[in-house]
Amino acid sequence: MRATMAVFRQGLGLALVCGACGLSGCSAAQPPTAALAQAELAVRQATASRAAQYAPSGLQMAQEKLTQAQTALAAKNYEEARYLAEEALVDAQLAEARAESASAQQTAHELRRSIEALRAETERASTTMGPSVP
């Protein structure tokens, strides 16, 4: 009888541990669908921000890691899928930031050239008109 009770307690203890793990949401047992969705959105946003023009290698890395994450998810390798999705998210965000930075630098350069052209035109106009007589 005591042996039966000991086996019952061990089984109950194991069931409680497994139940607690299931309730707490062990990350290895759940597919990282949220992480993949975030990575997909980040890759789409990076593409829309002209990252393909200004940060093509970063965008390509993000796309490749997203594809690898989707493959790992399909193979039920959830830990690897989560890791790759997080890397894809960061790579896409970095590519988007680099694209925005490069675009802003280009806009600033064009504005400087326009200002210089306006200054030169103003100086030319003031020298050709000569001194004004009051």
Properties at a glance:
Substrate Binding Domain Of Dnak, Chain:A, Domain 2; mainly alpha; rod-shaped; 85% helix
Short account of what is shown:
The chain is an all-alpha fold.
Architecture overview:
This protein has 134 residues and is mainly α. It has one domain: Substrate Binding Domain Of Dnak, Chain:A, Domain 2 (Up-down Bundle), CATH 1.20.1270.390. Helix content is 85%, strand content 0%. The protein has five helices and no strands. The relative contact order is 0.11.
Task: Outline the secondary-structure elements.
Layout: H1 2-24, H2 33-48, H3 51-54, H4 56-74, H5 78-129
Second CATH tier, the architecture: Up-down Bundle
The CATH class label is Mainly Alpha
Structural class: mainly alpha
- Average the pLDDT over all residues and give the rounded result: 83
Summed up, the helix count is: 5
* Oligomeric organization of the protein chains: single chain
The amount of beta strand, in percent, is under 5%
Low-confidence stretches: 14-18
At the fold tier of CATH, the topology name is: Substrate Binding Domain Of Dnak, Chain:A, Domain 2
Q: Report the span from N to C terminus.
A: 121 Å
Query: Rounded to an integer, what's the Rg over CA atoms?
Result: 30 Å
Helix content: over 70%
DSSP, total strands: 0
Give the H and E element order. HHHHH
